[in-house]
Amino acid sequence: MDNVREIIIIGSGPAGLTAAVYAARARLNPLVIAGTVWGGQLMTTTLVENYPGFPEGIDGPDLMENIRKQAENFGTEIINEDVTKILLNQEIKEVHVGSKVYYAKSVIVATGASPRMLSIPGEQEFWTKGVSSCATCDGAFFRNKVVVVVGGGDSAVEEATFLTRFATKVYLIHRRDELRASKIMQERLFGNEKVEVILNTEIKEVLGTTKVTALKLFNNVTNEESELPTDGLFLAIGHIPNTAFLDEQLELNPEKYLIADHGVYTGIDGVFVAGDVEDHIYRQAITAAGAGCKAAITAERWLQSL
């Protein structure tokens, strides 16, 4: 077959596009299948202050545009389409995009993960205007302000504890009568005078004008409604890895994240992983970019060994 590529990269966030930069510089002529909505979570982020090289910060979409142009300048081909089917467990991999089929010796899966949403009024309207899913990314914007974290697991407790470095008050809201987080993390949380835990409570609406000003709450024990003034809402109810299109051809953990040795190797020769589709711990642009670098170098060495 004369139309078999060296490598196809699926996904166009920091992991996928960084992998493309490295693969293109290695003269592998990568094809990136970016998705109809390309760029990953940074496309819905405003100011990014923790990505190296930008002392004044940079808007998320601008950062992704820069990395995309860099990949294209080295010879990457990028198509803004969605993968509809993929066949990995064969020597020549097939990646289907509608009726068109692309063939490659190797594939990097870098499709990322999406934050789990509450699906309530105001949530989308105030996204990046007070609603966030990453305390590490956005916590510094809420210095001397009041914020709310929703969730009851380790991630929610960790986010709430982290936010006390900046906020004057942090509310942790959970719909059940007790938190699911580990006991030691709960002890630290309850021992922090800046934190107030509100149980048996659901958030029904995000309120505001140009930015978040309050939340509408519902107590599911007393059936009482109330409003809680706040400057920000942090979602800590989990992420959904974008792995459904793989049709379970690769090994997944119970939360559907890809399992990969050293964060790169799958159980199939020539198939590699990068970024938040595997990393459910750090979920940062810089760690995703680093993972993309590792995956591309690993894929290049694997191709050289053939």
Uncertain runs are none
- Quote the distance from N terminus to C terminus: 17 Å
The 3D shape can be described as elongated
Radius of gyration: 21 Å
- The tally of structural domains comes to 2
Average pLDDT, rounded to a whole number, is 95
The level of helicity is 10-25%
Name of the CATH class of the largest domain = Alpha Beta
Instruction: Say how many strands there are.
Output: 19
Give me the CATH superfamily of the largest domain: FAD/NAD(P)-binding domain
Strand content: 25-35%
The CATH topology of the largest domain is given as FAD/NAD(P)-binding domain
Taken in chain order, the helices and strands follow as EHEEEHEEEEEEHEHEHEEEEEEEH
| Overall CATH architecture of the largest domain | 3-Layer(bba) Sandwich
| Biggest sheet statistics | 7 strands, mixed
Count of DSSP H/I helices:
6
